[in-house]
Amino acid sequence: RLRKARLHVEKAIKEKKIFAVQGPYPIIRRLLRARGWVERKLPRNSKQLKQQLGDQKKQQLEKRAGDEQGKAVPNSRAGAQLSLGTTEPLHHPRPSDKNKGEKEDEYKKEDKEQCNEDSDDIHDLMSFLVQDQVPNFLWTVRLRNIDQELLPRIEVVNRFPRLQALCTKEGLCQSLQNLPWFEQVDLNTFFPRCYRLGLMDEQDAFIEDFRLTAARSLLKLALQKVGDKPVGTEQPPKYDKVSPVSHPMLSTAGLRSPLYPQLVEEALEVCEQHLGVLEHQDIDRNTPSPYLTCIPWERFLHEYYRVAHKGTELVLSREQREQCQDMLQRLEKQLPQLGIEGNLNVWILKPSAKSCGRGKAQGSTGHTHPHGEGISPSLCCPGIVCATRLEEVLELAQSCAGSAARVCEWVVQKYVERPLTIFDTKFDIRQWFLVTDWRPLTVWFYRDCYLRFCSQPFSLYHLEPARHLCNVSIQKRYKALQADPRLPPDKIWSNTQFQAHLARLGRADAWQQVIVPGMKAAILNALRCARDQVGSRKGSFELFGADFLIGKDDLQPWLLEINSCPTMSPSSVVTRRLCANVQRDTLRLVLDRKDNPTCSIGAFELLYREAPVSSCLSVGVQLKVTGCSLKKP
């Protein structure tokens, strides 16, 4: 056994096939071993990991001097020696932080899977033999855990540095604002409007947007009201008793007091002014900004809340109804996101640099008010808040007022109020793509993806996390809930199942003609905007997971966020298969394809490869500016 292990190690070192895996990736480990690679196991604790990698130079010098004679085999390629008597632990130590319960569960699961696949302890022996070798291939969850001095010596790494511009909510919001410099594409056609509340300019822009959206929503509600009964919309819940704890805006007196008669006229005036700005009429005439208009916004929003959230009666004349219809038709031509807005002006607040629903949000958990004022003022899941009132958003914005200008604690984004649902249940799409180079930009799109469902029917009048947040890490808290018996218990569909559903709806062509092209375009636009801010490293690659919602009417995909290092945990039958496949195909693309350019790369397809740009300036060219000075007359 020892001889076999040594021979295998010698061959792996000669062929540069030493790998290290940090994190729960048993499939990567198994696939690399099947290719003849030898694993150098790393400690799970980041401090010990850096110490272990940082001591390698010293270990190798000692071994070259012959300090470990009799305990090593020769390195036929570089002259280094391999120790059988290393003092580094073979198994990963537990993290010291007692509060990371979910991480410990993940580690236990990984250990169990690793034990199952390591039934032959020859892998343990070979791991001892290569403890002083720098891995040729590294697959890690966090790049910062690796010693930065030794990282450049690792030939292939599955992570890129400095991804904040792409993979944080704040960074993506900021990067996509620069899209006009790269592509003649309207950002509002694929990315819901987003603002960083820590910046006063963007906070003011959000306030203006919120008010304008409320005015448009009022026009929609006016057209849908017949007496005091909404037509074609979900009825707000009603209760007989009023809770003593309520929002300041929601008083019982407000339910009985009549709406002031100029409400619809003011909404029409604001929309007319906004339309003038959109049509650039303000260039030739003095069109006041809707944000600076003389309309009393506090009173207007108060009345709008009564109509939208309480079902207060709104009566229109025939002329006003026609004016509302005409205005919305004109706005539709100028506003690509009018179709996703709905009537209730819901916005979603997210911590700028968190994922999986994590964050610092404080407040009540998601609920509907017991007094039945219609829609709940806010939903608060760990780190994610849905709000329907301006003052709530601004109160949260105060928490980052003292932060550094470069860090915004919250971003606020327009909530997609009219998403496509399946069996009245909200879902999103997790779509993988792979970047193998940033300069020139090279992107690969994965043809398979999966859908993540919520646990309760979609409703804007009930803002519980179970109805609105599709993250698996959130929905696993609601395992006992089932939105519809036609959906699987694990709340996951493959894209094949989704295509079959579209076919039953008579939209079989939408997947290939609308959804996939839309996702590809959104991903490529985001990458182009963030490329100059991302750390590029030859030999690195990264698998990303983009999250999309689908619009209800036109089935247009809307990009929500891009995740680095997406989870590969098999949370369902579908993800067990797809996650295994995407890991297999990733290794085919980044490893096998180097030796065999014609090998299969599975479900990956080349999305974009930037043409190399040759320099137009030759070495040694001298530049000068010629001209004459202008004399003052």
Low-confidence stretches: 64-104, 110-119, 226-234, 239-255, 357-382, 402-407
Specify the CATH class of the largest domain: Alpha Beta
CATH superfamily of the largest domain: ATP-grasp fold, B domain
Total strands: the figure is: 18
CA distance, first residue to last residue = 95 Å
Global structural class = alpha+beta
Into which percentage range does the β-strand content fall?
A: 5-15%
Q: Profile the largest sheet.
A: 7 strands, antiparallel
Proper CATH architecture of the largest domain:
2-Layer Sandwich
CATH topology descriptor of the largest domain: D-amino Acid Aminotransferase, Chain A, domain 1
Report the total helices. Answer: 20
Please state the average pLDDT score: 79
- How many domains make up the 3D coordinates? 3
Fraction of helical residues: 25-40%
Described by the principal axes of the CA atoms, the overall outline is globular
Calculate Rg over CA atoms: 29 Å
Q: Could you describe the 3D structure shown?
A:
α2 packs parallel to α20 and α9 packs across α13. The chain is 36% helix and 15% strand. The protein is built from 20 helices and 18 strands. The strands form 4 sheets. Strands 12, 13, 14, 15, 16, 17 and 18 form a 7-stranded antiparallel sheet that branches. The protein has a 5-stranded antiparallel sheet with strand order 5-11-8-10-9, with helices on both faces. It folds into 3 domains: 1-56 and 120-157, no CATH class; 163-191 and 419-609, D-amino Acid Aminotransferase, Chain A, domain 1 (2-Layer Sandwich); 193-229 and 259-355 and 382-415, no CATH class. By secondary structure, it is α+β, with helices and mostly antiparallel strands. A hairpin with a 2-residue loop joins β13 (425-438) and β14. The model is unreliable at 64-104, 110-119, 226-234, 239-255, 357-382 and 402-407 (pLDDT under 50). It starts with a helix and ends in a 24-residue tail after the last strand.
